[in-house]
Amino acid sequence: MRRDLNTNYVCCHTEPVEVCGEGILKRHAAPLRQAQGDNAQAFSRRKTFTIYHLPFTILLFCLLLSCSGGAQQKRTSSSRLDKSEKLQLVSPKNNAQIKNNEEIKIVYLKPNFQYDSVVAYLENKRVATLVDTSSLLKVNIQRFGRKLLTVKLFKDSIEVAATSVNLTVLPSLAPKTYGYRIVTSYPHSDQAYTQGLQIQNGTLYESTGLHGKSVVRIADLQSGKTLKDKALSKEYFGEGLCVLNGLLYQLTWREQTCFVYDSKTLDLQTTIPYSGEGWGLTSDDKLLIMSNGTNVITFRSPNDFSVRKRLEVYTDKGPVSYLNELELINGELWANVYGADYIVRIDTASGAVNSVVNLQGILPNALKDSNTDVLNGIAYNEKTGQIFVTGKNWKRLFEIQVK
């Protein structure tokens, strides 16, 4: 089969078909005149059969032409995809950090093909039409963290080129810094490697860590004595806890298991698996709020630990990692930062650190020994407004006021 360059149709030189029915009659004229009797009738049937197949042949030609057109269209689409690879974004660079409510410069190299409009998208949401190869774009978002910036070129409303870069959008304001005043202090077990702390209806709950020493306990606030406890098997390293709807949830560090107890009796009700490490835990009275040692906070279903929301935590300088024990206080998420002498207060809508509570020096040197470890543990009495803090193997638990 070949394509005739002059007539632009397809010719199939397969016997006995020719270009038209007239050619078929001419080719078989001599045998027809010599045929006699039954032979003549048989040949006549063959001739009739061949002529009747002419419409089928024309239909076949049409199908071939259609396939040829589809291939041409496919080549055109492929050409457009090739063009998209030629769009180069000069600014901003991939993985750049930018401040919210500030202008960024978008610069791209003008490609060598035609286009009539350029549009910028942030997280697939159209944010601006660019009028030149160098334009300013003001970024204004509600939740901080990694975002995808995409620039697309269009011709006659059809996308002909696109390119994307990752950006990290930071809060524009630095967090405020507050101090503290000690209201009073209470005895605390220096054998309690505190991982989670909560006061619920006047009852103090604590989860402790270390393999072979991890427990969940109910303690008396005034004396620090254990009223009831439940030890974990030595293969588990206890982490944060939270009381919600009459149940006590206790995380484990790397064992990816949450133990669920009756909050009054500490009888084990069930276990829930999850992926990744478990560090701190609190709740907003509907969902569990969990940290994992990074700057990412997850909001999870208390039924199956499925993630319902993710929150990335940042200051104006960058991400805040090692987020540990958590407590929700008046809608604001308070978090210990592992190894640090301060607490960060996080906006749960945007992930911005609004302020820092500096607790440096809260534990006197006279109360420290070789067993004393880092600050960790925040509890809030919602009924009285009291805030309590302690640390791993600390001998005291402090009620503080922020100032």
Model description:
- The chain is mostly beta strands and 403 residues long.
- Helices cover 15% and strands 46% of the residues.
- The chain has four helices and 33 strands.
- The protein has a five-stranded mixed sheet with strand order 4-10-9-6-7. Strands 11-30-29-28-27 form a five-stranded mixed sheet, with no helix packed on it. The chain has a four-stranded antiparallel sheet with strand order 12-33-32-31, with no helix packed on it.
- β1 (2-3) and β2 (10-11) form a beta hairpin.
- The longest helix has 31 residues, at 54-84.
- The radius of gyration is 38 Å and the shape is elongated.
- Residues 1-53 and 68-84 have low confidence and may be disordered.
Topology at a glance:
Layout: E1 2-3, E2 10-11, H1 21-27, H2 29-34, H3 37-52, H4 54-84, E3 88-91, E4 96-99, E5 103-109, E6 117-122, E7 125-130, E8 134-138, E9 145-155, E10 158-170, E11 176-178, E12 180-187, E13 194-200, E14 203-208, E15 215-219, E16 226-231, E17 238-244, E18 247-252, E19 257-262, E20 268-273, E21 281-283, E22 288-291, E23 296-300, E24 307-312, E25 314-315, E26 318-319, E27 323-329, E28 332-337, E29 342-347, E30 353-358, E31 375-381, E32 386-391, E33 396-402
Short description:
With about 400 residues, the protein is mainly beta. The protein has helices spanning about 20-25, 30-35, 35-50, 55-85; strands at about 1-5, 10, 90, 95-100, 105-110, 115-120, 125-130, 135-140, 145-155, 160-170, 175-180, 180-185, 195-200, 205-210, 215-220, 225-230, 240-245, 245-250, 255-260, 270-275, 280-285, 290, 295-300, 305-310, 315, 320, 325-330, 330-335, 340-345, 355-360, 375-380, 385-390, 395-400.
